[in-house]
Design goal:
It is a single chain. By secondary structure, this protein is mainly α. The chain folds into two domains: 86 residues, Tetratricopeptide repeat domain (Serine Threonine Protein Phosphatase 5, Tetratricopeptide repeat, Alpha Horseshoe); 78 residues. It has ten helices and two strands, in the order βαβααααααααα. It has a two-stranded parallel sheet. Helix 4 packs parallel to helix 6 and helix 6 packs antiparallel against helix 7. The N and C termini lie far apart (91 Å).
Length: 221
């Protein structure tokens, strides 16, 4: 006997279709009804998206973050992660949109503000707005973090404020090294500053020296 799949949602429509087919005169085929439901929660879709993202499968990660947002449009982490996917794909306008939506959910949030700043840096658009936002984030509670200060330094450099950019980079470098030293001595339970963050800070300071040689710090005696 032949069968065919009729994928309908919700289940009431599927049942109605089945009754119509069964009552139709001369119908000898009984279709198999499959009612598709999404068993995953929004949080589970985000977890799946993160797993895909770590494997470099950005399209699949984007799909899962989109599914999470269809279930919960106010899911902050899904918004930021989706913005990160667009940023990685160099779709800066779309990334900016997602970060702004995330900031509507959490005004002044450091992560969303930081990533929105990088959308501005990479695209070259909205540097002034991003700089104002990051100045506010860094001056707020818990704002003195190496990664945030590094981003602030890059924004200042792009806005042609080399002296202020060097101040941000120098403070980011100092805090990063202090965290590493404290962790080694067992003084702090916080994780040490990753080496990649130190490398990024030094790379950005190198870019600053190339762009603005006069902004280079004076050599130590």
């Amino acid at each position: 006997m032949m069968s065919e799949e009729v994928r309908l949602r919700p289940w009431r429509r599927a049942l109605q279709t089945l009754l119509v087919l069964l009552l139709a005169g001369g119908c000898s085929r009984i279709p198999r009804i499959i009612v598709l439901e999404d068993p995953l929660t929004a949080a589970e879709h985000v977890e799946l998206g993160v797993a895909y993202e770590r494997k470099g499968e950005l399209d699949l990660a984007q799909r899962e973050y989109g599914r999470a947002l269809r279930k919960d449009a106010k899911f902050y982490r899904a918004r930021v992660n989706l913005g990160n996917i667009f940023l990685a794909k160099k779709e800066y306008g779309k990334a900016r949109k997602e970060y702004l939506l995330a900031l509507e959910l959490r005004p002044g949030d450091a992560d969303a503000s930081n990533n929105l700043s990088w959308a501005a840096i990479f695209s070259g658009e909205g540097i002034g707005e991003a700089l104002t936002r990051m100045e506010s984030v860094v001056s707020g509670p818990n704002g003195r973090q190496p990664t945030l200060l590094d981003t602030l330094g890059v924004l200042r450099m792009r806005a042609n404020h080399p002296g202020e950019a060097e101040e941000a980079f120098a403070l980011a470098d100092a805090l990063c090294r202090q965290a590493g030293a404290a962790s080694k001595e067992g003084v702090s339970a916080a994780a040490p500053c990753p080496e990649e963050v130190l490398r990024e800070i030094e790379e950005h300071r190198g870019e600053l020296r190339r762009r603005f040689p006069s902004a280079s710090p004076a050599p130590a005696d």
